[in-house]
Amino acid sequence: SFYNFRLRNHVQRQHEHPSKAMPAPRDLIGPCTKTHHSHNESYSCAKPWETNDCNPGDNVCTHRAQFHHAISRLGLTPMNTTDELDLLDHHTMSIQPTTQPVFFLELSQLSGSSSSNNDDNDDNDDGPEEEENKERLEQLRLDLQEFLGIEALPPMRPYHKPYTRVKGEINICDNQYQDVRNVLLQHGQKASTWILRYLLMSPQAIVSSRPQFVQLVQQWQYDPCTTPTTSTTTND
Fold this sequence. Notes:
31% of the residues lie in helices and 3% in strands. By secondary structure, the chain is mainly alpha-helical. The protein has a two-stranded parallel sheet with strand order 1-2. It is globular. The two termini are 27 Å apart.
């Protein structure tokens, strides 16, 4: 999780700022700043270790999960209806329209998977599902190659970094973090709906293996800790 990622960096840097301990996850619900004068100031602090106005979470807060707000600033969607603006929480950040195509991918596509909640299973390495994953990953490579206009993009190989747990790391699926998950789920549902209903309607929004992308983004609407992943794709 982003919390655990930041915690690892936090532990490494805490000797520089010993008074700033990583807060409990439930204390990071909401904005990253204690006071904010504009909507975009609530997403992150420029100098989280040096500014008293920053919550002591090294820029970890639930507001940052609303990254569809940032994507909307590209001006790829109309943003002229109440329905769309509600999904974007009527944010007041400036819009910087681009005339260029933009390539979007869901992180799980880097493994070729159609599920955003995967467990490593070596027994399935040579099964039909693994073969489909390899085909989708190869298609992603070809689509990126075409999008970037280069002749040969090297094959994508998964990288597994050696992992050592750090004291204080959490399992977001533990019951004590249900309130945090509820907030993140609300953000995920709005982001998923906006991407499927509005962003993908733009001819400038480019994705690889569209059915896979749609299926992955649809899964954001459900709590992965309580909902089994599904291979069924439905239309929004």
